[in-house]
Amino acid sequence: MKKKVVSGLLCAVMVASLTAGCGAKSTQTQETTKGSTTETTSKEAEAKKEEPGKEGKVINIYVWNDEFKARYEDYYASKLPAGYTVNFVTTPSENNAYQNALDEALLNQADAKADDKVDMFLVEADYILKYVNSDSTLDLKEIGITDQDMSKQYDYTKVIAQDTKGAQKGISWQGCPGLYIYRRSIAKDVLGTDDPAEVQKAINDWDSFDKTAAKMKDKGYYMVSGFDDTYRTFSNNVSSPWVNGDKVVIDPKIEKWIEQTKNYTDKGYNQKTVLWAAEWASGQGPDSKVFGYFMPAWGVDFVMAKNSLAKAEADGGKQEAGNGTFGDWAATIGPESYNWGGTWLCAAAGTDNADIVADIMKTICTDDATMKKIVEEKNDFVNNKTVMEALAKSDYKSEFLGGQNPLQMYCDAAEKIDMSKISPYDQGLNESIQTAMHDYFNGTVDKDTAMKNFYTSLKEKYPELKTE
Amino acid sequence: MVKEKKAKTRKKVSYAKWGYIFLIPFFATYSIFSLIPLINTFYNSLFENYRSGLTHIGPNFVGFQNYISIFQSDLLKYFGNTMILWVIGFVPQIIISLILAVWFADFRMKLRGSAFFKTIIYLPNVIMAASFAMLIFALFSDNGPMNNLLMKAGMSDEPIRFLATVWGTRGLIGLMNFMMWFGNTTILLMAAIMGVDASLFEAASIDGAKSLQIFTKVTMPIIRPIFVYVLITSMIGGLQMFDVPQVLTNAQGTPDRTSMTLIMFLNNHLYSKNYGMAGALSVILFIITAVLSLFVFFILTNSGDKKGGR
Amino acid sequence: MSNAEKLKKAVAYVVLSLLVFLCLFFFYCLVINATRSHPEISKGFSFIPGKSFGTNLHNVLNNKNLPVVQGIMNSLIIAGSSAILSVYVSAMTAYGIHAYEFKLRKTIYLFIILIMMIPTQVTTLGFLRLINAMNLMDNFIPLILPSMAAPVVFYFMVSYFESNLPLEIVESARIDGSNEFYTFNFIVLPIVKPALAVQGIFGFVASWNNYFVPSLVLKSNSRKTLPILIAQLRSADFLKFDMGQVYMLITIAIIPVAIIYLCLSKFIIGGVTAGSVKG
């Protein structure tokens, strides 16, 4: 009897899924036939859907997560002209899926129906040049965004999005300058002071950073958490791009990172962690011996603040001084200025809704009032000098940083960032060198083997590049 | 009598076409969704054809240049990695599964709750390999519970950095493959053993045969077809190993590319849209798998196999 | 019972308990993590449940950009249909090879054994180009139909027919005037039901957990399957990145399969056994 019930259940489940499957399939078949029917019918269909002109009423924005979608909904959605819809096409960046999907769409742009065309897409610093240097992005001047509109933006955010001829192909609403965020109590214990200006003297350049690291070690602390923590401060300040013509060049700064990190690892100045790992995160919490982290504003407010708590918010803990290491931190410039993160908006060539795309960009990336609201409501560091400088001079206080106002430091750092030495291959190269060198730092392989592995993985990623 | 004769003659004359008819759906599907892509892949392997940024390079005919490049790479190393990773998981898997299957099938042992055990051991198979890898990663991380345990038990003073060592990583991959597949194998083998006429076991034990003798002389020969099935499917699975090392090592095959499997290597070329190289690698993989599997298949089924020959 | 046998039994129980502990342990870890908040998880592992179960569940189910319920439906449709199709067509193919004499029989059998070895990833490139050309991107069809040609299931079914389907049954059905399709559908299939069930659940689980090809085919949010949604959640931006939600979604993804499996396990395990004994 039992057996019968079970097999009945099996049948029911299978029948259910089968019928559901059939239903779905038949509707899909209809849809696909619609898409692939003869030209006349599809033209008719389009003509019916869109009134005069070729413009579709759907704005397609390609993204890899919801961050921009949230900004769009909070600060633009209400301004969208009636009759239009904005469609976010989200592909996770895992395994390069986002760029693959985007590339596919951009390459098919000419053949796509008006409502399927990519209108706007988002890119990150590490691969922005791949798109900026292509014909798939529009010069923002063509859609009516002027230099004047962008005059309050930080220079590096503009330079990074210019193609070889200097055309502005991308725009961002954020700036992501980074600082060195250190533990006040450890600073007092080792350096005798927690004053940011004094601490800055101890880490003003890499030589003094090394010396301080040795002092930290003597007292049982770690200068940085792991292998990747200092990487961006070096890779952002290289003297030449990763790739020259089609040849990969290892910059002295990268060499310096390898040498320094190996040295730190062998001497025990770091905890051998990898970025974002549990050990890396717990280094920001109670019972940690890590002196400091290189972090941009978002990393301080959204990563460190949460990780610092002894009693998590879910358990009724609060973000207040005394809960874990919250409030026991301070910010200082550190040895070098650098940028970490950021998202740029690009207008896709062939867009049928250029006006709306331009308006979204103008509103979110250049409008003072909107940007001020973004800072106040979302804690973003916005790409607007006027807004940020004004806030820097206000009585803004960061509880996490023990009452310090770090904004002026962020502003100063943002002015100093130089992103002119990036290449279209940065994403793959940065990833590969870090992965390959981890083995070297861990002592699994020697440096030559690590370099060999780096080149091997490059050949797989970029067949056109020449190594050595 | 007459009727039966008629039927037999009819079978010889006209039923052959039904054999073909029953094969149509399979071959129609296969031709469309596998054969055409396969031929396309073969064809592609003769061209230089990849994407650099948004520009498409090729297709330029280059003959066997892609194959030469593949053979100049560390192909053998990745093949070795793949086989090692498979063996680490498969050896314990087949041993444990055989033992469990014998136990479950042994009526004299009267194991209580065997239904419960049989159900539970299959469960790890329903977890997504990627999710499973995430969990293992957390469990065996430097500050993870495994290290806490080891340190509290005084077995180690410092955290063991499993994933920074070659054999730590390989061992964990083997462990996961073992966990995910031993239940499945046990069920298949048990089914085969239970198919054996119980009187055979009885006769053997009356004759004074020891458990081990019963196993080698009676059980093994009978369950051989299913054993071959398990071995071959597991080997295919092993050669195609991808998800577990991919997620555990974050697609890098670390450390020192010692857990980079063949399919991960292929995936690296797919990732960069290098159709030519990926195509050539696919063809090589196809040949490797075909040769290996046919070899195993014939060795194991050669004697006493009546299949297909009747 | 002799001492040796008692000892053997004791060993059996110890080994089994250990394995069961291991198996359940991973599920335990998963569920525990689903009850913990992101900062707790990122700080390290714990075996004690957290208090965020409700929050995580609420967050996952109400995530506007993550149609979880739709995802479950999509996964059910795809996995269910492909499991049924693959089992049915494979049984049909195996029956064709097993029950009929024809010229190419041996060749075809060898051919299928050979193609069984080809890794799916090998054909991915061509497959994607093909379905792009066929205008089937972002569609369930290329994820369901190809499962009809499942050489591994075919191989299992042939072996099963060999030992469990005496051709006399087919003969006598013919004498009774049954046509070939009727014989296959209503006489042969019921006999091999246990094998169908086993391969069905294996196929279902494999398809349910499949990420590689679906992630390349499915584009729009409303068509995505659970593994893709999990990947999407894992690559959320730093503001939304929440391991608690990730673990919760993984747990949710396991539940339907685990339920189906647990309901069927007696049937499957018992069925395989009963089926084999006959042969």
How would you name the CATH homologous superfamily of the largest domain in chain A? Periplasmic binding protein-like II
The unreliable regions of chain B are 1-13, 303-310
Shape of chain A: globular
The main pleated sheet of chain A reads as: 4 strands, mixed
Unreliable sequence segments of chain A? 1-53
- How many helical stretches of chain A? 19
Number-wise, the strands of chain A total: 10
What's the arrangement of strands in the largest beta sheet of chain B? 1-2
Highest CATH level, the class of the largest domain in chain A: Alpha Beta
CATH superfamily placement of chain B: MetI-like
SS-derived structural category of chain B: mainly alpha
- Pair of chains with the largest interface and how many residues each contributes: B-C, 103 and 101 residues
Distance between the termini of chain A: 74 Å
Supply the CATH class of chain B. Mainly Alpha
What's the pLDDT, averaged over the residues of chain B?
Answer: 83
Description:
The complex is a heterotrimer of chains A (468), B (310) and C (279). Chain A has a four-stranded mixed beta sheet, with helices on both faces. In chain A, strands 4, 7, 8 and 9 form a four-stranded antiparallel beta sheet that branches. In chain A, a hairpin with a 2-residue loop joins β5 and β6. Chain A is 46% helix and 10% strand. Chain A is globular, with a radius of gyration of 26 Å. Chain A is built from 19 helices and ten strands. Chain A has helices spanning 2-36, 39-49, 67-75, 97-107, 128-132, 155-159, 184-191, 196-202, 206-218, 231-235, 252-267, 278-282, 297-307, 354-366, 368-378, 385-392, 407-416, 426-442, 447-461, and strands at residues 58-63, 85-90, 118-124, 177-183, 243-244, 247-248, 292-296, 329-332, 338-339, 343-347. Chain B is mostly helical and 310 residues long. Chain B has one domain: MetI-like fold, CATH 1.10.3720. Chain B is 71% helix and 4% strand. In chain B, a hairpin with a 2-residue loop joins β1 and β2. Chain C is built from 14 helices and no strands. The interface between B and C is large, with 103 and 101 residues.
